[in-house]
Specification:
The protein has about 140 residues and is mostly beta strands. It has no helices and twelve strands. The chain has strands spanning about 5, 10-15, 15-20, 30-35, 40-50, 55-60, 60-70, 80-85, 95, 100-105, 110-115, 130.
């Protein structure tokens, strides 16, 4: 399965702005949390062999990089990176299937990223982390 964007939208009228995502099915979500990185810090190269994640920028903008892992014990350092930008303009949701590492970079001070997962914390041991400079630039 490939990462995909579930498009949201927004509606502006005299009452204010309403952001929505009527296409997202949250039925498998078991927990949620929010990431707020310091500007110029990149939270990189952690991922999951089994778990899935869904990301949505609830404030500001983010650059998300994804790497599909070929070998969890010793991945190829030259694996392709896919870059996706998320902003709070619409309630777009990035679905990250199992098998990917992520890198998260805030592009605006105070940006906040909503993260949703399909397993509760501690249900399984499925956290993989690699040094920030492990993969070729």
């Amino acid at each position: 399965m490939l990462p995909s964007i579930i498009l949201g939208g927004s509606h502006l009228d005299n009452r204010g702005l309403l952001s929505y995502n009527n296409s997202f099915d949250a039925g498998v979500i078991k927990r949620i949390y929010v990431i707020e990185n310091k500007l110029n810090f990149i939270r990189r190269w952690q991922g999951h062999k089994i778990e899935q994640r869904w990301f949505s920028a609830i404030k500001g903008e983010f650059e998300i990089q994804l790497i599909k892992i070929d070998n969890w014990d010793r991945p190829n350092k030259e694996l392709e990176k896919v870059t996706i930008n998320l902003s709070d303009e619409n309630l777009d949701i990035l679905h990250i299937p199992a098998g990917y590492l992520t890198s998260v970079k805030a592009l605006i001070e105070g940006a906040r990223l909503l993260v949703m997962a399909d397993y509760k914390l501690g249900d399984i041991k499925d956290d993989y982390k690699f040094l920030a400079d492990y993969f070729a630039e």
